[in-house]
Automatic annotation (TrEMBL):
Domain of life: Bacteria
Organism: Flavobacterium branchiophilum
Name of the protein: PD-(D/E)XK nuclease family transposase
Coiled coil as UniProt keyword: yes
Coiled coil: 276-335
Keywords of this entry: Coiled coil
Length: 338
């Protein structure tokens, strides 16, 4: 089956607009039963028609350059009602952020701070929702080789040095669990429910060098996966959707080209700064060595002066001894003459 590559914003957004697919994606990652899900306000700033003569486009590109971003972070927010292991129902804010370049991580932190201000009415009482973040990355984390990881909180009693199993509503709303998906590290493994959900993101089996569409080679054995691949198939084969997908790819290339020169100049400046800092460190080292040599010379001079002073004192003492001997000899001579 031919499917569109969901790493592209227009495809990922189309996929996650389907409630069942959103439940499948989020519920599988969280390993939770999603009872209901509500799409919140989204940010989707991709421009289909990137006309460089358009003042709005120029403003958009200038803003991205000023922010030193190569491409937008795509954000999708959901309010999910999950069923806990105890049978209780709990509302949480699911925040999905997708980025192609590593520099986008700085925006993740800034945006996350804003999410703590979100409120949702639970039992007619305005209250902040616990946040769970999902990061879909189009680049690799060099330290982590797993395609999918969970960073979870743990309550630990520092006095007794033991894990606390009870949960605090106060703590739950101040901290959050995170999930990270590295699409470039997804393999053709197809065993668990998680494997099957991640398989649509696998960055292999492309039909051409554009890497817009690919062949999904796995056997579709669930209704959730069938619906997901069906949406991706339509996005990859429908002429209108395909054109939108190609427009996004061209937008990425255009912004990369426009920012490429700035990135090159920035790299050059950083290299110059690094070289100057290195030269400064070397100069400081030379100055330090000279100061050390000067201190050692001063020490040698002080030691020589001390030695000279001791010799002078010894000569004075010797002169006194000689004078005393002369006086004794003179006394003896006087006695002999008498």
């Amino acid at each position: 089956m031919i499917i569109a590559n969901p790493i592209y914003d227009v495809v990922f957004k189309r996929m996650m607009e389907n409630e069942r697919v959103a439940k499948f994606f989020i519920g599988t990652l969280l390993d939770q039963t999603i009872e209901s899900i509500e799409v919140k306000q989204q940010e989707f700033t991709f421009m289909k028609h990137l006309d460089l003569d358009d003042p709005k486009v120029q403003e958009f590109v200038a803003k991205k350059i000023n922010e030193r971003l190569l491409i937008n972070v795509m954000r999708l927010d959901f309010v999910a009602t999950i069923k806990t292991d105890t049978g209780e129902y709990k509302k949480i804010l699911i925040e999905i952020q997708k980025a192609k370049h590593q520099i986008d991580l700085m925006r993740f932190r800034n945006y996350l701070a804003e999410q703590y201000k979100r409120e949702d009415k639970i039992l007619e009482t305005a209250a902040p929702l616990p946040i769970t973040t999902i990061y879909v990355l189009g680049f690799n984390l060099s330290e982590i080789t797993s395609p999918c990881i969970k960073v979870e909180r743990q309550y630990k009693d520092l006095i007794e040095q033991k894990v606390i199993n009870e949960k605090s509503d106060f703590v739950e709303k101040l901290t959050h669990d995170s999930y990270v998906v590295q699409v470039n590290r997804i393999t053709n493994r197809f065993q668990t429910r998680l494997d099957k959900m991640l398989s649509v993101f696998e960055q292999n089996h492309f039909t051409d060098e554009k890497e817009i569409v690919k062949v999904f080679e796995h056997q579709i054995d669930s209704e959730d996966l069938k619906l997901t691949t069906s949406i991706l198939h339509h996005a990859g084969t429908d002429p209108k959707d395909r054109k939108e997908l190609e427009d996004e790819q061209e937008a990425w290339r255009t912004i990369d080209a426009l920012t490429g020169n700035i990135r090159h100049k920035t790299d050059q400046l950083l290299q110059i700064i690094s070289e100057k800092e290195q030269a400064l460190l070397e100069n400081e080292k030379i100055i330090s060595e000279k100061e050390q040599a000067l201190l050692e010379n001063e020490k040698i001079i002080t030691e020589k002066e001390q030695a000279l002073s001791e010799k002078e004192q010894a000569l004075k003492d010797k002169d006194k001894e000689n004078e005393a001997l002369k006086q004794q000899i003179a006394l003896l001579m006087n006695k002999k003459d008498k």
